[in-house]
Design goal:
The chain is mainly alpha-helical and 193 residues long. The chain has helices spanning 2-32, 42-48, 50-87, 93-147, 171-187; strands at 37-41, 151-155. Residues 17-22 and 24-32 have low confidence and may be disordered.
């Protein structure tokens, strides 16, 4: 009985050893079947993409337009205020009240317009950034698929990747592709993103 028990334990040990060996072989295959990895310096990619500069120029142009509109409203308000000050003593109490109410309404309009402009500017900037980032992300996705990358990491200033071999860095290649695509879209009359 004891011999039978030892045979079973020996058999179990052989089976477990074989199983452990099979797991080790599978683990080695998985470890050596590595993923193709790339790293992109995201700040450089964004900064050197031609489309971002054009988006900045377009946004700056829109901001200048809004600033001119605001300056006009502010100038009108200031002129109305100066006119009221100059005519104040010659006005009746009723006229003074009406003009003061008009000036107060004009001031509220100016404040409201400023708030709307700030909201519009933020939304417009967000849309412009989203459009550019969407194009960049799409280009990176296509590049990864076309070149067999399993993962492309973004190295940021905040330090999400502290080190990688230079051979993994595909930033410059992606910048060339992005700018070539962008120049083609400009030539075709499509300037979004």
């Amino acid at each position: 009985m004891q011999k039978e028990y030892l045979n079973r334990i020996s058999l179990l040990a052989v089976i477990l050893s074989g199983f452990a060996f099979a797991i080790a072989i599978v683990a080695l295959v998985v470890v050596f079947d590595y993923e193709k990895i790339g790293v992109v310096r995201t700040a450089d990619l964004i900064a050197e993409y031609s489309g971002i500069e054009d988006a900045r120029i377009a946004f700056a142009s829109q901001k200048e337009k809004w600033q001119r509109e605001f300056n006009t409203l502010q100038s009108d308000y200031q002129k109305s205020l100066e006119k009221l000050d100059a005519e104040w003593t010659g006005l009746t109490k009723s006229e003074q009240q009406k003009r003061s109410d008009t000036i107060a309404a004009q001031k509220q309009n100016l404040i409201g317009y400023t708030q709307v402009l700030n909201e519009q500017a933020g939304e417009e900037e967000d849309r412009a950034i989203e459009k550019v980032m969407s194009h960049i992300n799409e280009c990176v996705r296509r590049y990864a698929e076309e070149h067999g990358y399993d993962v492309i990491y973004g190295a940021t200033v905040e330090g999400s990747i502290l080190y990688s071999k230079e051979a993994l860095d595909i930033t410059d290649e992606l910048i060339k592709i992005l700018n070539t695509e962008y120049e083609t879209r400009i030539a075709d009359g499509r300037t979004s993103g």
